């Protein structure tokens, strides 16, 4: 089980990303527009730097919904390999059976 503080910190980051997503996207389009004047692009870059760092999408860590484990995460299932194995062996995930040959 992951530390509660790390899980909470990640949830806080998710909220900030949602809050600043539109503003961040608008500023990024201005900075990447080669036809825009240099002063406008520079001003947009400064405004982008003023936004909170945790509002950036890359700061969010994928974590297991069951245990909070940050590694060996399956995106499709939103859980780690260990949680997947435990739930699969106990028969709580339909369609997953232990393999043997």
TrEMBL record:
Pfam families named in the record: Ribosomal_S14
PROSITE patterns given in the database record: RIBOSOMAL_S14
GO BP of this protein: translation
GO molecular function list: rRNA binding; structural constituent of ribosome
Domain of life of the source: Bacteria
UniProt-listed Gene3D superfamilies: 1.10.287.1480
GO cellular component: cytoplasm; small ribosomal subunit
Keywords assigned by UniProt, alphabetized: Ribonucleoprotein, Ribosomal protein, RNA-binding, rRNA-binding
The protein's assembly and partners: Part of the 30S ribosomal subunit. Contacts proteins S3 and S10.
Family: Belongs to the universal ribosomal protein uS14 family.
Biological role stated in the UniProt entry: Binds 16S rRNA, required for the assembly of 30S particles and may also be responsible for determining the conformation of the 16S rRNA at the A site.
Record's protein name: Small ribosomal subunit protein uS14
Species of the source: Aurantimonas aggregata
Classification lineage: Bacteria, Pseudomonadati, Pseudomonadota, Alphaproteobacteria, Hyphomicrobiales
């Amino acid at each position: 089980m992951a530390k509660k503080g790390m899980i909470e910190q990640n949830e806080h980051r998710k909220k900030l990303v949602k809050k600043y997503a539109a503003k961040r996207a608008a500023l990024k389009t201005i900075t990447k527009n080669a036809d825009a004047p240099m002063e406008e692009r520079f001003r947009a870059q400064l405004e982008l730097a003023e936004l909170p760092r945790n509002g950036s999408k890359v700061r969010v860590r994928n974590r297991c919904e069951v245990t909070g484990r940050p590694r060996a995460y399956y995106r499709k299932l939103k859980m780690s390999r260990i949680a997947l194995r435990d739930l699969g062996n106990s028969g709580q995930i339909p369609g997953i059976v232990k393999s043997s040959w």
